[in-house]
Amino acid sequence: MIRNTDEFKKAAHRFVDWMAEYLENIEDYPVKSQVLPGEIFNSLPGMPPEKGELTDTLLADFERLIVPGITHWQSPSFFAYFPANSSFPSVLAEMLTATLGAQCMLWETSPAAAELEEKMMNWLRNMLGLPDNLHGVIQDSASSSTLAALLTAREKFSAGKINREGFRDYSGLRVYASTEAHSSVDKAVKIAGMGHENMVKIPTDHIFRMDPGKLEEAIDYDLKSGKLPLAVVATLGTTGPTSIDPLPDIAEICARHNLWLHVDAAMAGTALLLPEYRWMIEGMEQVDSFVFNPHKWMFTNFDCSAYFVKDRDALVKTFEITPEYLKTDTRGRVNDYRDWGIPLGRRFRALKLWFVIRSYGVKGLRETVESHIQLARDMETRILKDPSFELLAPVTLNTLCFRHVPEGVSDEETLDRLNEQLLKLVNATGECYMTHTRLNGKYTLRMVIGQTRVQKRHVMKAWDLIRETAPKLTG
């Protein structure tokens, strides 16, 4: 138990030393945890200690019991799922945030937190080339942001009646997204009370983008069937192949039918730092809401999701509830961000964003993102040159979707089984970590190059491991 500030200082120095050594030596850890289900749980005591324990004991048990069960997302050999990046300035800011322990629900509860958040969202809007009429707020995740978008669309459509009276007159509200859209859209439709059967999945084209013609057909069919088309979720950087939905065509359809258009750019939005990738947001002036996650590819550790909305009043009206204990004299003159999303309680997330942007500078952020895209391009070339591998989707940004195709093997079930085995063997080495998806029904290896510290040697090490492992498959 830490009893005074001197003991706290001593412990803090030791913890910071551990943190620094961990990040310095992170390549020595197996990227994916090697423990078995239940192993950590069974190693922990069944009952809590009756008396307080020493901090040295806590740190020792952390290293002995917890670290073996951690998958090391900050490893430069982490190529799975999506990057969940941290960085030195972000970690330092989180330490300050934890020390302050501020509850940032209202402007009154910490004015600096509210005003820094407003400024950071303005910075991000300008850095990404988004329209000036968008208003930003930091949410915990893109999932929460998408839910906020659909709830706002629902209330704007019903003039607030659903919040007041329920769904009595509004059954059959329809939401549209591509078959490659993130599962958070499905979850948001369910949580928003619209019913999962009203989640309409639109087919994609040959490169996994939403097909605008199919979208138009689905909306027309629903209108003739007495349904209520409400919103479209377009994706910039789909979860599987990182495909980019054709925003201009989708925006035109939404404008014609007066539908709310939400854009999910959770990972790929960071690429908008590079002017040459702003073709992805052509048509953005017709978008109602937009989200991207600095905690994915902008070196700001989780959680920090940047959500932008055109109609700020509609957002606030959807979520505001003001009991007596939350009334303040400043209401209406400041941003009380507890009205801009689902939770009342809010962390001081803007501080780490401020530290990261200032530490890297816009130029440094651009150069790092650009280097990751180049590493993906180099890897694409290697795959294309190797006759025993094939790409299964275009390499748009930093994600590669490919599979092993041994000579003489064409049966799809066999190829699926071989590639599943290949992935398990590669991950079991602990030297790198990848995941999979399915594209056109095919088992697909998925490699995302976006970790903060990743270098060419880490990508080459992973590629060499994949190629060395492939001939060992048993079929």
Write up this protein:
This protein is of the alpha/beta class. The protein has three domains: 5-30 and 33-70, Up-down Bundle (dopa decarboxylase, N-terminal domain), CATH 1.20.1340.10; 102-347, 3-Layer(aba) Sandwich (Aspartate Aminotransferase, domain 2), CATH 3.40.640; 362-472, Aspartate Aminotransferase, domain 1 (Alpha-Beta Complex). The chain is 42% helix and 12% strand. The chain has helices spanning 5-24, 39-43, 55-66, 88-100, 111-128, 142-157, 161-165, 183-191, 212-224, 247-257, 294-297, 312-319, 350-385, 412-428, 456-469; strands at residues 135-139, 173-178, 199-202, 228-235, 260-264, 289-292, 305-309, 389-391, 399-404, 435-439, 442-448. Helix 6 (142-157) packs across helix 8 (183-191) and helix 6 (142-157) packs across helix 12. The longest helix has 36 residues, at 350-385. The radius of gyration is 24 Å and the shape is globular.
